[in-house]
Structures are given as C-alpha cells and as structure tokens.
Amino acid sequence: MMLRLRGAWRLFRVALHILHGVAITLLSLDSLERPARLRRVQWWAAKMLRVAGVTLEGAGTPRPGGVLLVINHISWLDIVAIHALCPQARFVSKADVKHWPVLSRLVDAAGTLYLERERRRDALRVVHHMGEALTAGDTVAVFPEGTTGEGHALLPFHANLLQAAIATDTPVQPVALRFSDALHAVSPAVAYVGDTTLLQSLWWVACAQGLRVRVQFLLPQGSAHADRRALAAHLRDEIAGALAETPPG
To answer: Are the C-beta atoms of 172 and 224 separated by less than 8 Å?
Structure first.
C-alpha cells in the first residue's frame, strides 16, 4: 500500500511539473535569450528526474559546439537525463512523438528534429537538416538503435544518421546510459518496450525504489572520411564497453 501511495504522489508531482513546463514553453521560453533558455531547460529536466524519484549521476563532459551525440536507448527518460546535463542537445525523434498529448509541446520547444520512419527516404531529409544544425554549431543527439531496449544488451546500431556528422566533418561523442534501482543492476522499471504505454511507464518509474540513471559522456572522436557502418559498429563497441566496465549505481 505504501508503495502505491508513494507512486501516486510522485505521479501527481510529475503531472504538475509537466504542466508547469508547458506553461513556461507557451508563456516565456521564446522570449528568453539562448543561455537563459538553456538554463530553464536544464532546470526543468533535472527537477523532472527528482520528482519522479530518479537520482542522476553524470560522468564525463559533453563536447561544446557542433557535435553528434550517439546514445543507447532505453526509455523516454533518456532525453530528460541528457537534457539535465546537456540542455543544448537537439534530439532526432520519431514523428509519433508530435502526437503525444501535452508532452509534444515540450518536445517541440527543445528543437527536436522529427523522422518519419514509415517513409524510407525521409532519413535523407533529416540527415540534411542535421548537417545544417551541426554546421551551425548545434549539439544533435541520436539513438542509433532506432528503438528502445531493455538495457541488458545493445541492439544493432543503424548507420544512416551518422552520415550527417561524416559529411560535415563533425566530431561524434558516444554516451552510455544505465538505469539501476535498489533491487536490480539494470532496472526493469524504465523498460519502455513492446506494447508498454507512456502512462504504464510513468507508473512503473514512480513506483520504483532507489531508481538511478548514470549518464557517461565518453571521449569525442573524429568522423571525417569514416565509413558510416564501421563508425556505427565502433561507437556501439565503445558504449558496450563503458556499460560493461561501469559498476551499477
């Protein structure tokens, strides 16, 4: 009973914080200068983790300026965790997110680039826009697995979106995410796979005990003249190695 009450209280606070974020987005975010806007994004993301009962641990440093972050994908919480440490990151996300109630406002405000996976050639359009953003000095973030996994092992990395970094001679920086909790080295509470709904995932997260997320920024590396499939395999190995070497929180 106490677990459910705590989960309900956390879920209530999460809902209030989401609505607060939407209000900020609609009323004031566009009027702020970029540094102030990024501070607001970082504050909102860090508090979102706290009210959901998630402890954040960061390691390494995100590279400033134009860089492509390559991240393993576990949950919708991944984006929140990254923004709590790297608020300037612009994510490439599936177009379905545009239709999420309420949350879509926040996703739009973060400068998200949308990919319509059902259209095979849409990746070319997204790679072009990613290249423009990287050339302008933006931080762009991708999940090359293309979907969420359970956190126990990495899925194959798709190489298409890496072409944006190769074509613009932009550094790539692998990022390793791990969620653990009081009972599990790899927490099942954050698994967002199969037919799991966003509401179900929110409830599982809210009810978890001692949930932690570790975000490890690995060393940036060059991408000029790289073969994108070889680069994807190399980045996957880097992230897998970091996850294997890092003890659970």
So the answer is: no
- What is the per-residue pLDDT for 101? 60
Residues near 211 by beta carbon (within 8 Å), at least 6 away in sequence:
52, 53, 54, 55, 179, 180, 181, 187, 189, 190, 205
Please give the pLDDT value at position 93.
Answer: 80
> How many Å apart are CA 219 and CA 238, to the nearest integer?
10
Q: Count the neighbouring beta carbons within 10 Å of the beta carbon of residue 99.
A: 8
Helix 2-27 and helix 198-207, axial crossing angle in degrees, nearest 10: 120
Which CA distances in Å does 240 have to 26, 52, 165, 237, 249? 39, 27, 21, 5, 17
The CATH number assigned to the domain with range 2-245 reads: 3.40.1130
pTM score, whole prediction? 0.91
Degrees, nearest 5: CA angle 147-174-215: 80
Distance CA 111, CA 103 (A): 13
Edge-first strand listing for the sheet containing 212-217: 55-59, 212-217, 172-180, 67-71, 139-142, 89-94, 113-115
- Report the SS3 class of residue 179: strand
For residue 166, is pLDDT > 90? Answer: yes
